[in-house]
Amino acid sequence: QKGTELGARGPTGPPSPPPLRRRTPRRSSIGKEARGSFAARRRQPFYKAQGLPKMTDAGGGWLAHVDPATGATYYARGNDVRWERPTEASQAPKWQSRLDPATGATYYYNESTRETSWTPPEVEKEEAGEWRTRRDDASGCDYYYHTVTGETSWTKPEERRLDEPEEEPRKLAPLPSPPASPPKSSPERTSPKMERRVSPNVVAHVPPPPIMKEPPARRSSTELDYRGPAPPTRTEPPARRPSLPVPPPPLPASPPLKRPTPPSLPVTRTSLDTTSSESEDNDSIALSTSVPALAQDYEGHDFPTFAKAHFQMHRKGLFKARTELDKICRWKRATMKLALLESCCRDADLLAEALQAHRNVTGYMGDRSSSKNKDGHRTKLIGQLLRCKQELRDEVYCQLVKQTTLNPSSESAIRGWELLLSVLSTCPPSEQLAPHVGWHFGEHLSSTQESADYTQSVASYAEKCLVALPQVMKLGCRREKPTLLEAQATSKGEGIPVRAYLVDGRHLTIKIDAWTTALDLADALGSELGGVSRQDGLRVFEVSDEALQERCLDDDERVLDVLAYWDRMQLQDKKKRRKSAHYKLMYKVRYFYTDTLSSPCAEELHYQQARQDILDERYPCSLPEACTLAALALQEQYGDRNDHSLRVVQGHLADHVPPSARSDRDLIASLEQRVLKLYGKLRGYSPEDARRAYVSTCRAIPVYGAAYFEARPKTTEYPSQVVLAVTATSLLVVDPSSRAVLKSFSYGSVVTWGHSSASFVVVEGDEVSHTKVQFATPHGREMNDLIRAYVEALVPSSED
C-alpha cells in the first residue's frame, strides 16, 4: 500500500522513518538494545527490513522501483532495466466496482494504486493527461501545468488529448540510454491518480512556474482556491483473509450524495407475457393504473386488526404473559415456539406443522442458519401447503406478513416477498384473511428497500402480489406441485415460455405465469396469430405425440398444472423403467357452432383442421364429398387449373383424398379424372373462397366436428359398447364397429340432461311424455360442458 506514495516522491528522497518508542529498560542495556532493534525491524515493511527497493506494478509487465539512495524511480521487466518510463507501462489502471455492505452504494477500486472513488474514473482522460493549476509562492498567482508533458503556462490552454494530431509536431529531446548509475535528479512526474495519494510528508514534483514579464492579476478573495479534490479518507481496512492474496479494498469515507438509480424491473403480466415490446409497454401502463385501484379495495382492512382478533397473544415467558400487538406483528429473528393463530395453537398436529412451516420460512429468508439451501425450504413448504388444512395456510400467510414487516435486512425482506409470491401461486388465503393480506401489499407499494444489486425491490414484489391475490382467490389451490423451474421463475416474478402447436405443424411460444388458465392461453395465441377471438371456437388441447389421445383443457384449468402433471408422470415412468407418453399443447378448433368467423386467420385455421380431419378420416365422408373436397383443396393451393397444376397434381392424389376413397386401385385413374374435372369447374375461386367452401362442405357431414366419448348404455336397445358423439346440433349414438349412427338426440328435442362422476343422462320428448336414456361413462362432466356451450349458442335466438 505504501508503494504508490514512494513512487510519487520524486527526487526529494524517502522521508526518515518515525521515531520508535523506547521501552523502559528492565534488565540490562544489552537486552534493551536487542529488543529495540528487533522491534524496529518488525515494525518496518518487509522491503526495508531486507534492504530491498520498494516496487509497484506499473502496467504492461513493468515494475516501478524506488532507489533508496536517491529516491529516484526506475523500471524493470526481466533483465531490462531503465530510468525512463516505458511506453508499455502507460496502460490504463485496473479499476473494479465494489458494493459497500453498509450503504449498498457502488464505489470503484484500483488494483494497482489501491485508490478508491465514489464516481466512475475517466481512465482515458488520465492516460492523456490534463491541465492543472498551482499557486506560485513568489508572486501569489496561479499558473497551469500539464500532468504528462510537464508544459507550463500562465493562461489556461485548450484541452487536447495526447493521441490527437498536433498542428506542428513538437521537437522532443531524445531519451537518454539507461545510465550505469542513478541520475542526480530524475524528475518523476506524478499522474493524477498518484498525486491524490501523495503522503502529506512528501512533496510531489510539479514543474516550476514559467518565467513571466508581468504577472497576471491576482484573483479576488471571493474566488475559491481550488487545488483539486481531496483524497477520500480511508476507514480501517478489514482483516486480511487467508484465502485471498490481497485484502479487500477500503471504502471511501462517506457515500455519495445521490445513490445511483437502480435498474427498473420489467412489470410481469397478470396472466401471460409475449415477446412484443409494444404490447409490453401497453400492459405495463394498464397494470400500473390498476394497482392503485386494487390497493384502495383493501383500505380499512389493516393486518393488526386481524391479529388482535385471531392471534394467540399470551405467549411470553413461562406463565404466558400477554405480548404487545405491535411486537407480534413485526419481524423477529428468533424461531417461534408457539403458532400465531389461536386455531393452530388449540390443535397439536396443526401446531407442529405450523412450527415446521416457520422453520422453512426463516430458513428460506436467511434469518436462521440451515444446511439446506433456500430452494429446498421452498419446495418443502409448498408441498406442505398443498396437502394441509386451510388453517395452516392462513398461518403461513400470517408468518410471512409478520417477517416482511419492519424487516431491517433488505436481503431477508426480498426473500420473504419472493416466498410470498410463491405461496400466492400455490394456494389462496381464506376469505376472512385475504383483505388484510391485500392491505399489507398495498402498504409496501412505496417501500424503498432494495436488493444489493438494485435488481429487486420490495415495492415491485408488493405490486405483483397485489395483482396476483384476486387471481388466486378465483382459481383456488393448485392441483399439482410446481416444478423447480416454475418455482424459481415465480419467486423472481418472471414468465415461463410455453410452446403451443398448430394443426399444420407450426408452433408459437408464449410466456405464461402460475395464474395463466387455458382460456387465457387461448386468448393469447389468438391475439398473437391476429384477430382470432373466443367466438371462433379455438381452444387449447393436450395431445400425445402419436395423436392417439387428446383432451381439451378446461377454461379455468391452470396450464402449469398440466405441465407439472406431465413432469410427474415421466418421473414415475422413469422409476418403473417403462416407456412414457410425451404430450404437447395444441391450439385447434373445439366448438363448431358458427359459420361466420371473425378474421381470415380464423378461416385458415378452420380450413387446416378440416382438411387434416378429412384426410385422417376422423369424420368419414362419401365418395362424392371426397372428390369435391379434393377439388377445392387443389383450387386453394394451386389456383385455376392449368398445365403446370395438372403436372403437379397427377400422381399425387393421396395428398388430397382420404384413404377409404382410393382403396380400390382399379378406380384410382377414374377417381383422378373425376377430381380434375371438378377442379376445372372451380375457375375463378380465390383461395379464401375455396377455404370457405371446403369448410361449408365439411359442416354438411353429419358427424363433422363431433367429440367422441366411449360409453356403455344401461338399456338393451343399443349394443353393449357405443360411442357418444357430441356435435354442434345433436348428440349421436354411434356403433364403433360399423360407424353407423344408431340414434340422434337433437338439442331442440332434448328436455334436459345431466351427469355424475360415472354416468350421463339425456331426456328426450316434451313435458307430457319423455324418454330417459342413461349411459355409464367417466366423461359425463366434459360432455355436459360441451353440450351446454352449444345450447347456449343456439337457444338465445329462439327465446328472444
Automatic annotation (TrEMBL):
Subcellular location: Cytoplasm
FERM domain mapped to chain residues: 496-798
Alphabetical list of Gene3D superfamilies matching this protein: 1.20.80.10, 2.20.70.10, MyTH4 domain, Phosphatidylinositol 3-kinase Catalytic Subunit, Chain A, domain 1, Pleckstrin-homology domain (PH domain)/Phosphotyrosine-binding domain (PTB)
Pfam families: FERM_M (PF00373), IRS (PF02174), MyTH4 (PF00784), RA_2 (PF21989), WW (PF00397)
Region (Disordered): 1-61, 111-284
Extent of Pro residues compositional bias: 175-185, 244-265
Main location per the UniProt record: cytoplasm
CC annotations in GO: cytoplasm; cytoskeleton
Top-level taxon in the UniProt lineage: Eukaryota
Domain MyTH4: 331-491
PANTHER family cross-referenced by the UniProt entry: AGAP003327-PA, MYOSIN VIIA
Stated family: Belongs to the TRAFAC class myosin-kinesin ATPase superfamily. Myosin family.
Protein name per the record: Uncharacterized protein
